[in-house]
Amino acid sequence: MTYKEEFIRFMVDSGVLTFGEFTLKSGRKAPYFINCGNYKTGAQLAKLGEYYAECIKDNDIPVETLFGPAYKGIPLAVSAVVALSNKFGYDVSYCFDRKEAKDHGEGGMFVGKKLTDGEKVVIIDDVMTSGKALGESMPKLKSAADVNVTGMVITVDRMEKALDTDFSAVQQAYKDFGVKVYSIVNINDIIKAIEDGVVEGKEYLDAMRAYRAQYGAEY
């Protein structure tokens, strides 16, 4: 299997990707659901980091530091930076932000690598629903130094229109911030994996294709 197919099976085995009928926060009724909160063991986190590392290497994203937005992005960035070192020999730095700046000890808004002008930073997060995390991260990063945000890596691109636009959250992020968002897999990869028998779920294919036809963004 390709690493994308392996990742889709990994999501299903971890209970992160499930099929059925789910009402999303948007009010839409979706035939699949992604709950990244179900990654909860050391083995899962180690494996997840390897998939982030594969995505960074596969897309040849220039990187010197991985940034994990608090709180969910912190363990993701840590797992990815370890995997880059262990699997590919890339020794890159990492940092994360505090929700509130610290005014004692080392102080400041960031923990980990002290950012410098021109530094190539990749943001690591789980999924992108609205682009809010990126919108909050960019001014924080730019306030620390004039960094070069070379990309953002997420697990799954739903390729779904936001409520008030024909663009997906990934497309809107590029439009608003000039940041390319890379995903380990997208919904088309998931549909193909079901078609090819990589994972179970053929009984949901019609509903998934219909949902994609109704709400999918054009890529």
UniProtKB/TrEMBL annotation:
Q: Which Gene3D superfamilies match?
A: 3.40.50.2020
What InterPro entries does the entry give? Answer: OPRT (IPR023031), Or_phspho_trans_dom (IPR004467), PRTase-like (IPR029057), PRTase_dom (IPR000836)
Subunit info here reads: Homodimer.
Citing just one GO molecular function, the answer is:
magnesium ion binding
Name the gene behind this protein.
pyrE
Q: What is the similarity comment for this entry? A: Belongs to the purine/pyrimidine phosphoribosyltransferase family. PyrE subfamily.
Entry keyword Cytoplasm = no
Designated name of the protein: Orotate phosphoribosyltransferase
Give the EC number(s) listed in the UniProt record: 2.4.2.10
| One annotated GO biological process | 'de novo' UMP biosynthetic process
Which organism's genome codes for this protein?
Ruminococcus albus (strain ATCC 27210 / DSM 20455 / JCM 14654 / NCDO 2250 / 7)
Q: What does this protein do?
A: Catalyzes the transfer of a ribosyl phosphate group from 5-phosphoribose 1-diphosphate to orotate, leading to the formation of orotidine monophosphate (OMP).
Q: Coiled coil: which residue ranges?
A: none
Q: What are the record keywords, sorted? A: Glycosyltransferase, Magnesium, Pyrimidine biosynthesis, Transferase
